[in-house]
Amino acid sequence: MAKLGRNMVLFFVVWVAAVASGGARGQGTRVGFYSRTCPRAEAIVRSVVQSHFSSDPSIAPGILRMHFHDCFVHGCDASILLDGPTSEKTAPPNRQLRGFDVVDDAKAQLEVACPGVVSCADILALAARDSVAVTNGPFWSVPTGRRDGRVSLASDAANLPAFNDSVAVQIRKYDEKGLNAQDLVALSGILIQSLITLIYRAVHNACQSDAAFVPQLRALCPQNGDGARRVAMDTGSPNRFDANYYGNLRSGRGVLESDAVLWADAGTRGLVQRFLGIRGLAGLTFGVEFGRSMVKMGNVEVKSGAAGEIRTLCTAVN
């Protein structure tokens, strides 16, 4: 997909920002939470993300995926950032996560500008938004006011959405977080937008219709090859945030089982088709709906008010 034109970018910014600021409050969060206590908070986070992105563009999808993994375990409370021998970081689904240094750098600068004010959970939510914007994706207003959790256990990450989940299991996991099937389809590309380790089993068992695609992937990542190798999983535009992911699903090029089944299932296929703008169906604008779903996800089980804390270091409780 071609890069977003200036007018389309402005359209996304205005529409998604209006949606977020108009109704995106949840459990104590609101847009502009730091306007008085730390007015440069968002600018500082954005600057840090841009700096890291300029030297390593692959860090952007890494931050986005980390926010997703954080919100699905104990809510969006930065528990994914805590160090420890049995913390969430050590769980198998989280071992390949990247972008921790981006959050740490932003936190260090914010502690100088506004000591003890901005939570690590909010930094991660803002950085996820900025990581999308810096890759020519949409921009949305992020409600802030989250507080940081004190509990981080690898065992609690067992129910994260997995690469081999069926549609029914995925819908159940999203429903448990107050998210629906449209949110699932809008956010499912987070795994594909990321440059992650290609799991051979996922390719081997995927429900593909493009017979030539699987051999290409297996050649890139053979069964007994280098397990640490990173490959682009979004064919066509791996370093750009766009809706090409849905075209891949339609063409039988969904890499992970959890993605391929979205096209195989009649219910979610209809949503994929709406993101693709199939004639005869009410279309869904990907950038707008992605921003809307990110706001919803970012308000999952957040801690606010007297709950949690504002960590001095994102890697350790106070």
From TrEMBL:
GO terms (BP aspect): hydrogen peroxide catabolic process; response to oxidative stress
Keyword Magnesium: no
Coiled-coil parts of chain: none
Residues that, per the record, bind substrate: P161
Site, as annotated: Transition state stabilizer: R65
Function text: Removal of H(2)O(2), oxidation of toxic reductants, biosynthesis and degradation of lignin, suberization, auxin catabolism, response to environmental stresses such as wounding, pathogen attack and oxidative stress. These functions might be dependent on each isozyme/isoform in each plant tissue.
Similarity remark: Belongs to the peroxidase family. Classical plant (class III) peroxidase subfamily.
UniProt protein name: Peroxidase
Organism (species): Linum tenue
